[in-house]
Design a protein that fits this description.
This protein has about 325 residues and is of the alpha/beta class. The chain has two domains: about 130 residues, 3-Layer(aba) Sandwich (Rossmann fold), CATH 3.40.50.1370; about 150 residues, Aspartate/ornithine carbamoyltransferase (Rossmann fold). Helix content is about 35%, strand content about 15%. A five-stranded parallel sheet has the order 7-6-5-8-9. Strands 2-1-3-4 form a four-stranded parallel sheet. Helix 1 packs across helix 5. It is globular and about 55 Å long. The structure holds phosphoric acid mono(formamide)ester.
């Protein structure tokens, strides 16, 4: 059975079975991207548009590579060079792009909910590549894929998310996905950046880093989202690093085989020490590698793949 959806907007709305289908399909595509010729014809004749209204290194490149490795045509839209600068609305912009017969729009925008608004206004598939502080579902999927690859399963693992939870769309997607797949999730950071109300999502809320990483299987360290903060949430970067920076000394509190993750971009020396970022526990670059296979799986499934009569080869 394939993924019976037009869009991927959040992990909150996916079932555990749908998440597992994407992760299992990504395993097949990981094998494809390790071949000398990393290309299959699954999306031949289809067009994918990268519509990014915010900066990106990993997500945009990885969606472009994923679509090209599936043999789709790919168009990269640059908001600053578009007619948005002349006052065209977001919906008029996407309707005009859709009128050129595109099949899938990958969209990132600073407003939470903007990707859903677009998805509900057009017939093409829409994938959320990060909307404001809401969700970044493909980051959540690639994080889960990486943990599963290293640990075998997510059920029963303790995963600690460290940092600016309030403004993090990565945190929200990870929480929804990890809780559905049976992991125990802890969130930790300054009280100003870790909402107590998140307990209703099934997570433990902490403000003490040492307590929160005690015996953790995975520590996923989040960037301080200065561009989304509308005030001062902690006195200084130095103070933040002293209280919440993950360093080699603190790492000893976690399980001996703990995984260190970060969605990027990293603020080295603030939320993570260079020794931890580049050390033997780090799977940060594995996350980036896995992002391509996970996004291939998603594009393939959203285009009707996995329904039984096609072969990814
Ligand atoms: N993880 C992530 O979304 O990185 P980019 O902002 O570089 O895409």
């Amino acid at each position: 059975m394939g993924l019976q959806r037009k869009d991927l907007l959040s992990l909150e709305e996916l079932s555990a079975e749908e998440i597992l289908l994407i992760l299992d399909t990504a395993l097949s595509f990981k094998e494809v991207v390790q071949r000398p010729i990393k290309k299959v014809p699954a999306l031949r004749g289809k067009t994918v548009v990268n519509l990014f209204f915010e900066n990106s290194t990993r997500t945009r490149t990885s969606f472009e590579l994923a679509a090209k490795r599936l043999s789709a045509d790919v168009v990269n839209f640059t908001a600053s060079a578009s007619s948005l600068a002349k006052g065209e609305t977001l919906l008029d912009t996407v309707r005009n792009i859709e009128a050129m017969n595109v099949h899938t729009i990958i969209m990132r925008h600073s407003c939470s909910g903007s990707v859903r608004l677009v998805a509900e206004s057009i017939k093409a598939s829409v994938v959320n590549a990060g909307d404001g502080t809401h969700e970044h579902p493909t980051q959540g999927l690639l994080d889960m894929f990486t943990i599963r690859e290293c640990k075998g399963s997510l059920a029963g693992l303790t995963v600690t998310l460290v940092g600016d939870i309030t403004h993090s769309r990565v945190a929200r997607s990870n929480i929804h996905g990890l809780v559905k797949l049976g992991a125990k999730v802890r969130i930790v950071g300054p009280a100003t950046l870790v909402p107590r109300s998140f307990t209703r999502l099934g997570v433990e809320v902490h403000t003490n880093l040492e307590e929160a990483i005690q015996d953790a299987d995975v520590i996923n360290i989040l960037r301080i989202q200065l561009e989304r903060q509308d005030g001062k949430y902690f006195p200084s970067s130095r103070e933040y690093a002293n209280l919440y920076g993950v360093n080699a000394r603190r790492l000893k509190l976690a399980k001996p085989d703990v995984l260190i993750m970060h969605p990027g971009p990293m603020n080295r020396g603030i939320e993570i020490s260079p020794r931890v970022a580049d050390g033997p526990h780090s799977v940060i670059l594995n996350q980036v590698t896995n992002g391509v296979a996970v996004r291939m799986a998603l594009l393939y499934l959203l285009s009707g793949g996995g329904n039984g009569d096609e072969n990814i080869n």
